[in-house]
Amino acid sequence: MRVLLALIALALAAPLAAQDSLPPAPYAYQQLEDPELEAQATELMHTLRCLKCQSQSIADSDAPMAGDMRHQVRTRIAAGEDPEDIRAWLIQRYGDYVSYQPRVTAATWPLFAIPLALLVIVFFILRGRFARRSKGAGE
Amino acid sequence: MIAEFGLVALWLAAALAGLQLVAGFFGMREGGEQVAALARPAALVQALLCGLSFLALIYLFATTDLSVKLVAANSHSAKPMIFKLAGTWGNHEGSMLLWITVMALAGGLIAALERRLPERTMLATLGAQGFLALGFYAFILFTSNPFERLPLPPVEGNGLNPLLQDIGQAFHPPNLYVGYVGLSVAFSFVVGALLTRQVTPEFARVMRPWVLGAWVFLTIGITAGSYWAYYELGWGGWWFWDPVENAALMPWLAATALLHSVSVLAARDALRAWTVMLGVVAFSMSMVGTFLVRSGILTSVHAFAVDPERGSFILMLLALYIGGALVLFATRAGTVAEGERFSILSREGALVVNNVALSAILGIVLLGTLYPLLTEAFDVRVSVGPPYFNPVAAIFFLPMLVVLAIGPLLRWRGDSFARIRIPVIILAAIAVVTLLAVWLLADIDLLPLLGLALAAMVAVGSVLPLRGRSLRRLPIAVWGMVIAHLGVAVALFGMAADTAFQQERLVAASVGDVIEDGPWQVELRSVKPVAGPNWTAIEADLGLTYKGAPAGEAKPQARSFWSPPTETSEVALVTRWNGQLYAALGNQAEDGRWQLRLWWKPFVTWIWYGGLLIALGGVLSIIGRVSGDLRRRVAARKIADRKADEEALAAGAGA
């Protein structure tokens, strides 16, 4: 039942946080009680970019903005939101730049097409090299 | 005076690089014997002058000559001497001078010592080396003069940033540069061999120590850089797929592929065109890395576009050298025969798979690193990070590991599956059993799960080549291979174990609180202020218990430097054989509690032990190859001497 209580508490997170004398974003530096939800939150945080840092995720940064975003992520996860919905919400707010996991869009499709092409090329290089070889050996 | 002396020496060295270029390329033609004689001396004197120029800059930093712009901007009279010296290359101009100095010294070394290749090939190689060097001299002299004077010297220097006074930071860049530049020598050998159509096993043997050496330095550089980020950033991460990390990883991937294919060429006279191609790619990746780090393009594409002088210069050099080499390759590829043939079930076959997989991973890292820069130029900002790199690279990396475990068991040229059936079955069983056991006992993600299984398989597979051989008589180079492959398994195990089993605790704690983290119990005993020479800090005193037994203490700090004002987190690491406890102290909350971050990271240190093992394997390989080569040369000379003696005797008897 603690989960339920936590959920109710979290629904009222903002005013409660103000009463409790913790800093304005208590979940910036604290984990969620439920390890499963915390694991979800951690996994998501590692794939979100800290917009104020150079190449760090929000899970790897002391920047205040990263702390705020961690708080947002944990609060929303605790409220039962799906991680991918949170990502979508953040992308809507900050743009694609915030997510380390590129989406397939008109601007990013080569990121996915080129590795597939590489796979095909690798297959043909190996086949070409060794198919000819075994024929050659057979002659 | 010293500054002017350094600049003059640099100009003269550049002129000698030009002479080396002319002497090399004209000397290799028919009738060019006279200029040809100049190529080696030009390389030697160039190395001397460039070395003097670099010493001059070191002297200026050591004496803190503030009339020199670079010193004034980056040094300070109150810095400890070691950091004054390291400050020489801790900035753009100085680091480029270091780059060209290493290159000149390497050129001097091959000019002085290397006599195994046909002289024409050597001339072409030296010419190519001169051509490369000339571009970098031009870059320094026209865009990044380190010896520029200030009209009005300031009273004190500007460079007391304590964050840059780090012994790791002092030796990291030179280490990586030696790696980058070693690949430039391989590149020059490739150009020389292509120009004179001498892509032979002998060429591979001459090139191999340079590739291995560069690779060892790159390996150490990446390992050290990863550990530095781990303890410095304060959040326990050890690899971020950051463009700066990728800039070092890409040449490493290419060099890894190259050193394997060069071994095939040396041993079996196969994979000629492929080796030559990789030689070009490896140095190209060094240049791409330098471009990424040195042009400022990573901070912002737009800032780069506004002030593109340096970046576009490197880009131009890049296009010139890579383009030139590729054109040369295209025109000569037809004449470089493919070399000896082999079947897929052979040592060469396994090495081809290794090469193709490494090249594919290289392609993916290059794509993922450059693509965001490309879209940013069109005002579309995207991020490519771990969720992209990890799975996409794994598609090629995991099969490669399987081949790594089996490949060394295969014979050259062709083998039968029946001969290696038993070890292969054992290896497969180890992988499957590990996979099932971990899967049943622990609930972890797919990639770390596969990582653990393959680490077990590779660990056993890497030592199997020792089976049935006399360990004392085993060639050193084989030991090198075994240890490097074992290092791959060790590092992979560390990565997978840490990813799968690390335990994180982020808490707000009061003095007296006890926090559980995995097998550890951490008691916050006290928090008190401490002071250092140029900082103050809050230090937490943590009493530790590991599985119920006292296990010492840890003292993480939150430090504040005052000039310039900077906050850093000094983490406390408690190392055991099976992992590390990682503790960091954050701010104080309004209610008086302290933010503590604790991670129990099982086997995380094995990542860097593995990296060091890989480097050690490389060192052993160099020792084995070079000593074998020297022995062969001494033996050849003895035979030649004896022959000469016998002839002299015969001639004497005849008279």
From TrEMBL, chain A:
Keywords: Cytochrome c-type biogenesis, Heme, Iron, Membrane, Metal-binding, Signal, Transmembrane, Transmembrane helix
Keyword Acyltransferase: no
Annotated InterPro entries: C-type_cytochrome_biogenesis, CcmH/CycL/Ccl2/NrfF_N, CcmH/CycL/NrfF/Ccl2_sf
Assigned GO CC terms: plasma membrane
Example GO biological process: cytochrome complex assembly
Cited Pfam families: CcmH
Transmembrane feature ranges: 107-126
Molecular function per GO: metal ion binding
Signal peptide boundaries: 1-18
Record domain CcmH/CycL/Ccl2/NrfF N-terminal: where: 25-135
Highest taxon of the lineage: Bacteria
Gene3D superfamilies in the record: Cytochrome C biogenesis protein
PANTHER family attached to this UniProt entry: CYTOCHROME C-TYPE BIOGENESIS PROTEIN CCMH
Purpose of the protein: Possible subunit of a heme lyase.
Family according to the record: Belongs to the CcmH/CycL/Ccl2/NrfF family.
Stated name of the protein: Cytochrome c-type biogenesis protein
Species the sequence originates in: Alteraurantiacibacter aquimixticola
From TrEMBL, chain B:
Cellular component GO terms held in the UniProt record: plasma membrane
Family per record: Belongs to the CcmF/CycK/Ccl1/NrfE/CcsA family.
Protein name: Heme lyase CcmF/NrfE family subunit
Domain Cytochrome c-type biogenesis protein CcmF C-terminal: 315-625
Highest taxon, organism lineage: Bacteria
GO-annotated molecular function: heme binding; heme transmembrane transporter activity; lyase activity
Free-text function comment from the UniProt entry: Required for the biogenesis of c-type cytochromes. Possible subunit of a heme lyase.
Keyword set includes Disulfide bond: no
Chief location: membrane
Residue stretches spanning the membrane: 6-26, 38-62, 96-113, 122-142, 177-197, 209-229, 249-267, 274-293, 313-330, 351-371, 391-410, 422-440, 446-464, 476-497, 606-628
InterPro entries the UniProt entry points to: CcmF_C, Cyt_c_assembly, Cyt_c_biogenesis, Cyt_c_biogenesis_CcmF
Keyword Manganese: no
Biological processes, Gene Ontology terms: cytochrome complex assembly
Keywords for the protein's UniProt record, in alphabetical order: Cell inner membrane, Cell membrane, Cytochrome c-type biogenesis, Lyase, Membrane, Transmembrane, Transmembrane helix
